[in-house]
Design a protein that fits this description.
Strand content: 5-15%
Largest sheet: 8 strands, mixed
Order of helices and strands: EHEHHHEEHEEHHEEHEEH
Number of strands: 10
Number of helices: 9
Oligomer: single chain
Helix content: 25-40%
Distance between the termini: 8 Å
Structural class: alpha/beta
Shape: globular
């Protein structure tokens, strides 16, 4: 049983197809502890692929269903256009992603979701951060939720609109892109929300943060460092996402000290649309669950 005076947070990173690692790890938690993820946490925060999983958890969807979503649907989500001029079109059509989200995620207005939920996005017209919140609202007028009527599906699509991969999503006259641009790891904003909105003390908070893999083979020394030849174009986006995730984890650990549990596996450099590593990521998640099971259980029940 969870202690009533402890505030439990689940923070889920972005990472495209690598989100299957997160879904599989959470599925193992549900199976081992005999409960849904939403019953284990007081606040769930997600970015991009983590927003899909967070929205599903808040909707009481079994994590095994989300593992199946990644297994069966990602080849359709990341199906390249039969024609494409890279300078003018996104890599993948957003319609495919929207259809699959609609197939698996309910069209629930955020204001009707009882579980406190945060989904990150980026308002690119005005260069501002944007957070979708469920019905818990905010006591702070500057961060008060204005997204009660926004459909969960639309919030997720906005959070998943990774630059160059998908077109931005228009929601309530805002032009929104992936939250990974500033909060690929939403740990810091979730901790801030607990401290400011829920009025918790740092010692009352327990946060489980799940990443989608830390590459150990991103760059090597070379002669040419042009955008394509050296920095690798899309690789640079992954690199920036990784750095933000590390910075957020470091800050959250400083804030929460021993009350922050970060699980983020070391992997090779797998792009966010890589379809060849799904089974490897599931196996890695199962291994990491066994490795951290006792620690996760103690963290959730503390």
């Amino acid at each position: 049983m969870r202690k009533k005076d402890t505030f439990h947070i689940l923070a889920l990173d972005g990472g495209g197809t690598r989100g299957i690692y997160t879904a599989q790890l959470l599925a193992k938690i549900e199976q081992a502890f005999g409960t849904r993820i939403k019953t284990c946490f007081d606040l769930i925060a997600g970015t991009s692929t983590g927003a899909i999983i967070a929205g599903a958890a808040a909707s009481d969807i079994p994590m095994t269903d989300i593992v199946e979503l990644f297994d069966t649907e990602t080849p359709h989500i990341f199906r390249k256009r039969w024609y494409r001029i890279p300078l003018f079109l996104s890599k993948y059509p957003s319609e495919q992603l929207a259809q699959i989200i609609a197939k698996h995620i309910p069209a629930t207005p955020l204001g009707e979701i009882a579980t406190p939920l945060m989904i990150t996005s980026s308002e690119i017209a005005r260069s501002e951060v944007h957070i979708f919140r469920s019905n818990y609202g905010s006591r702070d007028a500057e961060s008060a939720s204005t997204s009660k009527e926004v459909c969960l599906r639309d919030a997720i699509l906005a959070s998943c609109a990774a630059p160059t991969f998908f077109a931005p999503k228009s929601v309530d006259n805002l032009l929104l892109a992936d939250g990974c641009l500033w909060a690929n790891n939403p740990s810091t904003i979730a901790a801030t929300e607990a401290l400011s909105v829920f009025r918790k003390e740092a010692q009352e908070i327990r946060m489980l943060s799940i990443g989608t893999g830390h590459s150990t083979n991103m760059y090597q020394q070379r002669r040419g460092w042009g955008f394509i030849t050296g920095w690798g174009g899309a690789k640079l986006t992954s690199y920036v996402m990784t750095l933000q995730a590390q910075a957020s984890a470091h800050t959250a650990k400083l804030l929460l000290k021993g009350n922050y549990l970060r699980i983020n596996p070391e992997i090779d450099r797998w792009e966010i649309d890589n379809l060849t590593q799904l089974d490897n990521l599931k196996s890695l998640a199962e291994h990491d669950f066994e490795k951290h099971a006792a620690e996760i259980k103690a963290f959730i029940q503390s």
